[in-house]
Amino acid sequence: xxxxxxxxxxxxxxxxxxxxxxxxxxxxxxxxxxxxxxxxxxxxxxxxxxxxxxxxxxxxxxxxxxxxxxxxxxxxxxxxxxxxxxxxxxxxxxxxxxxxxxxxxxxxxxxxxxxxxxxxxxxxxxxxxxxxxxxxxxxxxxxxxxxxxxxxxxxxxxxxxxxxxxxxxxxxxxxxxxxxxxxxxxxxxxxxxxxxxxxxxxxxxxxxxxxxxxxxxxxxxxxxxxxxxxxxxxxxxxxxxxxxxxxxxxxxxxxxxxxxxxxxxxxx
Length: 268
Fold this sequence. Notes:
This protein is of the alpha/beta class.
C-alpha cells in the first residue's frame, strides 16, 4: 500500500524536516507553524507536503526529463541530487555551479532547461540569477531564512540537514514516478531513503579500511603437535623418560639414600 500523507509527515519528523532557524524571512512567515522557547521556528509540515506534491506535478509537465536541471552546491545535497536524476532522468549539476551555464552561449556547457530545481536559494544564488535572466521557472527547498527572489515554487523545509534533504528528494522522486505511472500507488517504492543520504568520504574510507582489516586479519597459528623436541619427552609416550632419558626409579644424583641417617656436620 502506498504511503499516506500522515506516514510521510512522520518520516519528515524523524528526519527533522520541520526544524527551521532562529531567523525568518517575512515571505516565509506563512509556512511557520510556531516558535519554540529556544527561538527555533517550526515549519508547517502539512504545507511542506502539499508543496512537494505541487512540485511533482510541475516536473511531470516537462515532456523531456533531460530539460530539468537539479542543482546543489551544498555538499549534503550532492548525493540526493544525483540519485534524484538517476530515477527521474533529470540533469544533475552537483558541486560548484559554472557561471554562464544558462546565459553564456559560447561555452560548451551552455544549457537551455525548461525547469530548475535548487537545494538552497542562498548557496545556489548564481543559478537563480541566471534562471531569472533566462526566464526559467525555479523550484527551491527553502528554509525559514531563505530569500525568495526568483523562486517560483518554494518548498518549506530544513535544507541544512543531510537527512532532511535526502528525504525531500526521495519523496519528490517517488511522487514523480507515481504520476508518470512508472510505479503503482498500490505498492510502496522499493528504493530506500538511505540511498539518498550524503556520506562523508572520510567515513567511507575508514569503513573500507575497517572492512579490509577484518577480512585480512591474520589467522591464528596452528598449534604444533607436541613431539617433545623442545624439552622433556613425548607426553604421549609414557615409556620414555624426561630430558636426559633419566628414569624416575633411578637413585638421585650422588647416590644418597634418603633412609640413611644424616651425615655429621662439621664443627664450626
